[in-house]
Amino acid sequence: MSMTLKDKITAWEPQAVWSAAGDGMWTVPAEKFHDLAARLSAEGFDFLRGLTGMDWGEEGFGAVYHLEATATGENVVLRTLTPSREKCGLPSVCDLWKAAELNEREVFDYFGIGFLNPPDMRRLILRYDWLGYPQRKEYDPEQ
Fold it and tell me: Residue 122: its pLDDT value, please?
């Protein structure tokens, strides 16, 4: 009997936590995230359908990744976060999915979430003199 994707993820990363909310999602510690993403990429998850920055308030900042294996149509959703609101760095996945580059820059622009070792972290959408991060819960548009 072959292992399900759920079994594989649990075996590869025991700290990954499954939630059936919505379409179902794995929460993966930031320091374990890149290794799990690399395993999924090697397993055939070749398409990063989306990478969305999130502000979960007290829980921290992070991102949600929607991955697809185009050969099988299988999808998986991963979430990773950091509790720090000041020094919030997540591992870059640009080395796994080229499409992540623009997504990571957008997340940085709107949330101020930095990525570790990205190829390019220049502003993508907002002006260089923009103050603050407009998608953060505490952002004051009057600034």
Answer: 82
Provide the b/e sequence for 72-93 (b: ≥16 CB within 10 Å). Answer: eeeebbbbbbbeebeebebbbb
Averages of pLDDT over runs of 10 residues in the chain (143 residues) are 90 96 91 97 97 93 96 96 84 96 94 88 87 89 77
The CA R_g of the chain, rounded to the nearest whole Å, is: 16
Asked whether the whole model's pTM tops 0.85, one would answer: yes
- How far is 23 from 45, CA to CA, in rounded Å? 17
Closest CA to 124 of 143, 138, 103, 139: 103
Distances (CA, A) of 63 to 56, 58, 80, 97: 10, 15, 6, 15
- What is the β-pairing status of strands 61-69 and 17-19? unpaired
